[in-house]
Amino acid sequence: MQVYLVANPKGGAGKSTLATNLAGLLAWRGGVTGAAQVMLGDVDRQQSSRLWLARRPAVLPLIRSWDLKPDRAARPPAGTTHVVLDTPAAFHGDKLKECLKLATRVLVPVQPSMFDILATRSFFDELAELKAARGVQVALIGMRVNERSRAAAEFLRFVEGSGLPLVACLRDTQNYVQLAAHGMSLFDVAPTRVARDLEQWQAIAAWLGVHCLPPTLD
């Protein structure tokens, strides 16, 4: 079972946006190849991802949540092949370590502001040590990035010294907001509607080893 942990202790970094669209990508791929059964697990008190799942139309590729039974710990439903874990702000200590032990890959969404960078610097250091010690694949994902801005240039300079790879930068667009309101991801609508965003996700898909992409990216 592949476990993808989306984590950053800084609030408002874009964790739920990244997690829901990552789950959408994996579910879309599973619908095409029949090779994936996806679970989106929300360990955030706000339960943003669970609320997103509650809005998801039944006609779309299935994404399941935790298997919850009385007097039993939450667990992935039987047959799950891919788990995406969405984590809360200030997520640290034993809970973070427990999730990191389960993770196959870790994706860290970061916005290109010095406040976000400074707030997560120690977390980057911890992940870099984990990557070196356990060989876990860790990647940074730039969120709401305007590539022409000074903030983006400073962000890229910081990333170069972090020891962690920047896999992709996702632009600031209402596509994510509008789709989230209906429990949908970029991969649930006509590719031509979100072609620019799908192009940015191509690098994330390649890093994940997902080679089956929407037609506009072939």
UniProtKB/TrEMBL annotation:
This is ParA family protein. SUPFAM superfamilies: P-loop containing nucleoside triphosphate hydrolases. Pfam families: CbiA. PANTHER family: COBQ_COBB_MIND_PARA NUCLEOTIDE BINDING DOMAIN-CONTAINING PROTEIN (PTHR13696:SF96), P-LOOP CONTAINING NUCLEOSIDE TRIPHOSPHATE HYDROLASE (PTHR13696). Transmembrane segments: none annotated. InterPro entries: CobQ/CobB/MinD/ParA_Nub-bd_dom (IPR002586), DNA_Partitioning_ATPase (IPR050678), P-loop_NTPase (IPR027417). Residues 5-130 form the CobQ/CobB/MinD/ParA nucleotide binding domain. CDD domains: ParAB_family. It comes from the Bacteria.
